[in-house]
Structures are given as C-alpha cells and as structure tokens.
Design brief:
Layout lengths: L1 H7 L1 H25 L26 E6 L9 H11 L1 E6 L5 H14 L4 E5 L13 H13 L3 E4 L2 H4 L17 H10 L3 E3 L18 H6 L13 H14 L5 E3 L9 H10 L3 E4 L4 H5 L2 H10 L4 E2 L9 H10 L24 H15 L14
Parallel strand pairs: 1-2, 2-3, 3-4, 4-5, 5-6, 6-7, 7-8
The structure holds zinc ion.
The site of zinc ion (ZN) has 4 residues, from loops.
Length: 377
C-alpha cells in the first residue's frame, strides 16, 4: 500500500503544473487580444479647440519639389485646375529627365501652360567613367537650359547606390563630378539635391525607432550600417560639395534631413550662403515643434521654400494649416512619417510670402513674377 500511495503523489503536482501553464497561456492570449496593432490604433481626439481647414494657400505659391512622371503625354488641364484650387501658381517638376523625354515634356507644357510649370533635368552620374565625360554631359546640360530647363535635380541614388566602373560607391563630393556643379553655377541654374534618408533609417528596427512603422511597411528603406555608408558620412559628402562650389546655388531637399535638429540646419545655412532648403515630405518635423520651428522659419525666412514631393491635392491642406494657422493637435496625413500630432506655426504674412514664392523667384530663373501680384505689402 505504501508503495502505491507514493506512486499517486506525483499526479497533483503534475495537475498543478498544467493548470499553472494554462493560466499563464490564457493570460498571454488575453493580453494579446486587448492590444491593438499600432497601424490600427486611430484614437479620435476629444480636444475642443478652434480649427481652420484651409484648402487654398493664403498667397500664390511655387511648389519647388514635385514629381510628375508622365509629363510628355499628360493632360495638364486637370492638374492646372487643381493647382488653381490650391493657389499653386507654379509647379516645379523635378523629374524632367533629359533628351527626347525632356523635349516632349517642355513641348507639352509650352502648348498651353508655359508659365505654370518649371522643369528640372536629371543626369546619369554612373557614366562618369565613360569616354567623353564630362564634356558630353556638360553639353547635354547646356542644350537643356537652352530648351528651357531651369535647374538640375539630383536623386538620392548619388551617394547611396550609384557606383562607378570599379563598383565603388560614387560620393557626392567625387571630384569627377566637380565640372557638373561648376557648370550649374555658370548657367545660373540651381541644383536641388536630395542626399541620404531620415537618420532613423540607420537605427535599429526596434520599439524605440521613430520610423519603425515605415521600416515595417517598406523594409528596403532600412539602412543596415554594415552595408551602407553612415548618415553622417553621406551628409558630410554633400556639405563638402556645397563648400567647394560657392558660386553654385544648392537647394538641399527635405530640410536636408535636419528638420529634427533645426539648430544644426541653422548652423549649416549660416556657414553656406549658397544653400537653400525646402520642406517637401518633412512638414511633420516642423509641425511637432511649433515654437522652435516658428523661430527657425522667421530667422531663415530667406532660405526656406515651399515643397511637397509626392503629388496629392488634399495633402497640401496640411501644409497650409501648419504654416498659416495656430491650430493645435491635428493630424498629419501619413502615419509612417509621424505618429504624432501637428501644431500650426502661424507664420506672419511677410514670412509666408517668402516661403511660398519670393525665395523661389530669387533662386529659380525665369519664373513669371506677374503670377504673384498680391495686394498684401
Ligand atoms: Zn522628391
């Protein structure tokens, strides 16, 4: 008897263990069921404050950072109608490309809307080892400017993914590119240059990463530090170009990815008077720091321009609201860029006018200034 009692004594222990495990698991599942995915969570604010939903800019503006991908064949009537609704006087299409495509784009624009669109051209920097470099490219640029091109747009592939014949990464400050930058100065056209990516793309993809959602939705945007030049490296290469070519005007795209560090951007602008910037796709940086951003925009009112990047009529409304109003705690239009709320900067009219069009008129040649005759000032 004693033997069999000993045999049964283990069973309650096993049952207890099993119950404990089940309890723990149920707790886990329960917890999970009550936790929402970050992409799903859309709390509706209960805050009651004044709201100003602007669908049109207070002053006519130039969008200096836009991409239209079918310009040679595009029906521009609809686009111009939308531009009129927004009070966008001039759109700068940075994707002008070159050669026949560029020629046909210009023809299409000039048919009806010659003063409403500006085209920037694009070059293939991977040709820099080809015979005939740089002279062929320089004459392509001269031709393009004769045809009506008003600037050069440089994509982020330069400095990140473009390679030379040896397979080496082409740095923005590669001396083989110097003739290009110098030529832009000579021709009197600005270079709008996008270098790098938001710094957070280099950070670990974890719960502390501000751009975690974007890296989840677009995994290829992650910059593995093992396989990529660092953020600081590519930005330093870009700044070396700015310093080396003081006679050329540069527009550093996307607040030069220093929208989250406006002091640093301010220092760069102080150091390099040939550099301007624009706010395309980085509005959420300004909108989350209304006090600092307002001060920055006022102090650097001669250096910052209106830009949007990807075209979507309704998304401009948020730009107008951040720049013009003093609204509080309102939504941005793209969660992966900003899981935070926006606040209006309430910029003075004189600053708005510089950002909306006066700086663009100064930097980009040949814009029809009569489109900006406003009654204010
Ligand atoms: Zn762009």
């Amino acid at each position: 008897m004693a033997f069999s009692a000993k045999k049964w004594v283990g069973i309650p222990i096993l049952i207890l263990l099993f119950l404990g495990l089940a309890y723990w698991l149920i707790g886990k599942i329960h917890y999970r069921l009550n936790v929402m995915d970050v992409e799903e969570y859309e709390p509706i604010s209960t805050l009651k404050v004044e709201e100003h939903h602007l669908k049109s800019a207070k002053f006519p503006f130039v969008d200096v950072h836009n991409h239209q991908w079918t310009m040679p064949v595009q029906d521009l009537d609809k686009l111009v109608q939308e531009m009129n609704d927004l009070n966008m006087a001039v759109m700068v299409n940075l994707s002008g490309f070159r050669g026949k495509y560029l020629e046909e784009s210009l023809e299409n624009v000039n048919e009806q809307y010659s003063n409403r669109f500006v085209l920037f051209m694009n070059l293939d920097f991977e040709k820099l080892d080809d015979e005939g470099w740089p002279n062929e490219t320089l004459s392509v640029m001269e031709e393009a400017v004769k045809m009506g091109v008003k600037g050069l747009k440089v994509y982020k592939s330069l400095g990140l993914t473009d390679t030379d014949n040896e397979g080496n990464r082409i740095k923005a400050d590669d001396p083989r590119l110097d003739p290009i930058w110098a030529k832009c100065g000579e021709l009197g056209i600005p270079v709008l240059i996008h270098t790098g990516e938001p710094e957070a793309f280099w950070f670990p993809k974890d719960k502390n990463n501000e751009r975690w959602l974007e890296l989840k939705q677009y995994p290829s945007r992650y910059k593995d530090p093992e396989k990529n030049p660092s953020f600081e490296e590519v930005m330093a290469e870009q700044h070396a170009v700015f310093r080396k070519h003081p006679e050329t005007t540069f527009i550093a795209a996307h607040l030069d990815w220093f929208g989250n560090d406006l002091k640093r951007l301010a220092n760069l602008l102080d150091e390099m008077p040939n550099v301007y910037t624009e706010i395309g796709a980085v509005l959420a940086e300004l909108g989350r720091q209304p006090i600092t951003a307002r001060e920055f925009m006022i102090n650097y009112q001669d250096r910052v321009m209106m830009g949007k990047d990807a075209y979507n009529k309704e998304e401009y409304y948020t730009y107008f609201r951040v720049l013009e109003t003093r609204d509080e705690y309102f939504d941005y239009y793209r969660k992966r860029h900003a899981h935070w709320k926006m606040y209006g900067l309430g910029l003075p009219d004189s600053v708005l006018q510089k950002v909306y069009y006066q700086n663009a008129l100064k930097v980009i040649p040949g814009i029809d200034s009569t489109l900006f005759n406003t009654n204010v000032n």
